[in-house]
Amino acid sequence: MGMAVCGSGVGTTLLSYIMNEIVNVKKWIKYENALLVECCIIIIGLLCGYLMRPLPQEPSEQRRLERKIRKEGQQKSMSETDAKEVDIIEKSSNKSLLRQIIEQIDLSLLKNPAFTLFVISNFFTSLGFNAIYNFADDLANDAKVTIHHRSYIVMSIGFSNIFGRITIGFFGDQKCVNRLVFFIVALIISGVATMVAPLCGASVFLHIGYASAFGFFSGGYVTLTSIVLIDLVGINKLSDAFGVFLLFVGIGTAIGTPIVGGMRDAFAKFDRPFLWPYFIFGTCTVISGIVLFAIPVLQRKKLNDNQIEMDGNTTTTKGDLSNEEQQEQN
């Protein structure tokens, strides 16, 4: 699992060095042009992402699915529902990409209390999650770290992120490991690393220390996300759940980073302008991890409610059968 998602760590490591070198070549490229170079690299990533689309269904595969649904329909009483499913398969190739994306957002999953808590937790985590990546160089500049050493801080995030994703991903795949607890611990330590970052002073080694801790455990947090989602909603609903999850995470990321930057500007007259922004959002991350300890309780409650509902339905069915038998005897 970790190997499949460690590419972002590689990119963080390489681009932090490459972009630093590009910006420092003042004779032929300015800072604004360096941003254009970075935009071009991002666009290449978008083009690569566009290639990752589901393959169109072959006619034979489509007919096989139709036969399967019709066969299942013979064993069920809900024939209208099966007819709708067949119609969906027949028309799926004619739907626009935007409409298919909208249909993937299944908000009914929020009826699951454990999943809802998980989504809310990660929303607050995402508010300050990217602050370390975006403001590590600015934080080092405010702390008077030597300019030639600042790129090492972001590079250390990338290196540790790769190692964290692979290591925590490996242990997360083991059956004997409680993935949720692993996830919570990674989240809490990432929050603590964010909180202590402004206290590192002018020492580049302390900055590399907090950056490495954050990179390692934040990488593990990202790696375990899909695994924990499977434990919460099941493999069959993973795609829908991940779509809803990313919707809220994206909103948090979009509004969180500007807030951190705005708070830094508001506290610019202080010796440590990032102290309160990092402390507030680091605390949000820590609390977001702690509240996830309630997920097992919510899962047990939901399981008990389902069991009571099933027992009630069974009792009702038996009562109806008894009434029918008495009527037949009369």
From TrEMBL:
Q: Name one GO cellular component term.
A: membrane
Annotated transmembrane regions: 34-52, 114-132, 152-171, 180-208, 214-235, 242-263, 275-298
Q: Name one GO molecular function term.
A: monocarboxylic acid transmembrane transporter activity
Q: Give the residue ranges for region: Disordered.
A: 309-330
Q: Which InterPro entries match?
A: MFS, MFS_dom, MFS_trans_sf, Proton-linked_MCT
**Which residue ranges does the record assign to the Major facilitator superfamily (MFS) profile domain?**
114-330
Q: Which domain of life is it from?
A: Eukaryota
* Descriptive protein name: Major facilitator superfamily (MFS) profile domain-containing protein
* Natural source organism: Rotaria sordida
